[in-house]
Amino acid sequence: MSIKVENVTKMYGSQKALDNVSFEVKKGEILGFLGPNGAGKSTMMKIITCFIPPTSGSVAVCGADIDSQSMEVRSKVGYLPESNPLYYDMYVKEYLNFVCGLYGITEGIEKRVERMITVTGLGREQHKQIGQLSKGYKQRVGIAQALIHDPEVLILDEPTSGLDPNQLVDIRQLIKDLGKDKTVMFSSHIMQEVEAVSDRIIIIDKGKIVTDRNVRSDSRNVEQVVLVEFDQAVSVSLLQGISGVTSVEDLQSNTYRLTGVAESDLRKFIAEWAHKNDVLTLTLKHEDERLEDVFRKHTS
Ligand code: ADP
Ligand code: MG
C-alpha cells in the first residue's frame, strides 16, 4: 500500500477540517481527490507530506509512519503545494539545482536536473527565469521540483488550477504519464478534471469522505455497477443468473442496481439477457455517471 490513512481528524482550533477520514491508495494508482473549496483536501495533503500533524489518527506512506518516521516519508513523497511558491528571480535550472541541495542530493545533480526537464517538458523554457514562464510552465517547474528525488508517491495539490485549456490538457497528460510508474494523488474542485485523469476518485466534503470508487469501469475485471430499468418487474434471482453479475439490488419501479465483474462492459451481457427474455430495457447506464450527481449535491 502506498498511502494508508486511518481515522484522521484535524482540528484548527474548534473547527474540524477533517473528520475521521480513512482510505488507502494502492501502488501505481492515480487517485483524484475531489471536493469543493474548504472540503479539507489541502489539509489532508499537508498531513500526508508531514507539513502539519493530524489531531488524531495515523498515516503511513510506503509503510513509513508520518509521526515516527517522517524523514523516511519525506524521502518517499514528492509534493506540489497549492499555489506553489517559487523563486521567480531564479532560473529554471538554477532552481532545480537548489532543490537538489535541499534534499541533500550531492551526486549526479546535472543529470537529474536534465532528466526532470525532459520528463516535465521544460526543454524549451529551461534557460528562462521562473518569473518569465507562463502559469502552465511554472506548474511544470513545481512538478519537476516534486519529482527531483525520485519519490514513489506524488502528491499534487490542485496542479491544474488557473491553467488555460491547452495547458490543462498538457498537465493532465503529464499526470497520466507520471502515473505509469508512480502513485499519484492529486486534488481538484472540478469533476471533469478528475474524471479525465484518475483511476479512482474520492470525493470529500466538509472533512468527510462521501464517495470512493473506481473510475475506469470499462476496463477488464474491475467491478462495474450498472443501473437498469426494464419495462416490467423482473425477479432478482433471474438477474443474478446474468453472466458476470455478482449482486442485484431491487430499487423498485422496475429498476435494479447490478454489480459485477466482467471481461467487458457488463451492460452488454444485461442487454443480451433482456433481449433473450423478451424484456425491454428502458435505461442502462454505468452508475459512474451518478458521480456528477453526488458531486453536484455537495457543491451546490
Ligand atoms: P480545500 O483544500 O479542500 O479547499 P482546506 O484543507 O484548505 O480545504 O481547508 C479545510 C478547512 O479548514 C476550511 O474550512 C479552511 O478554512 C480551514 N483551514 C485550513 N487551514 C487552516 C488554518 N491554518 N487555520 C484555520 N483554519 C484552516
Ligand atoms: Mg486546497
**Structural class, from helix and strand content?**
alpha/beta
How much helix is in the residues?
A: 25-40%
Backbone CA Rg: 22 Å
Mean pLDDT level: 91
How do the strands line up in the largest sheet?
6-7-8-3-9-10
The beta-strand count equals 14
- Tally of helical segments: 10
What bound compounds does this protein have?
Answer: adenosine-5'-diphosphate, magnesium ion
Helix-strand string: EEEHEEHEHHHEHEHEEEHEEHEH
Shape: elongated
Spatial separation of the terminal alpha carbons: 34 Å
Strand content is: 25-35%
Q: What does the main sheet amount to?
A: 6 strands, mixed
* Weakly predicted, low-confidence segments: none
What would your notes on this structure say?
It is a single chain. The mean pLDDT is 91. The chain has a 6-stranded mixed beta sheet with strand order 6-7-8-3-9-10, with helices on both faces. The longest helix has 14 residues, at 165-178. The chain is built from 10 helices and 14 strands. It is an alpha/beta fold and 300 residues long. The chain has helices spanning 41-48, 70-76, 92-102, 109-119, 135-147, 165-178, 191-197, 236-240, 266-276, 291-299, and strands spanning 3-12, 15-25, 30-34, 56-61, 64-65, 77-80, 153-156, 183-188, 200-205, 208-214, 223-230, 245-250, 255-261, 281-286. α3 (92-102) packs across α4 (109-119) and α5 packs parallel to α6. The structure holds adenosine-5'-diphosphate and magnesium ion (MG). The site of magnesium ion has 4 residues, from α1.
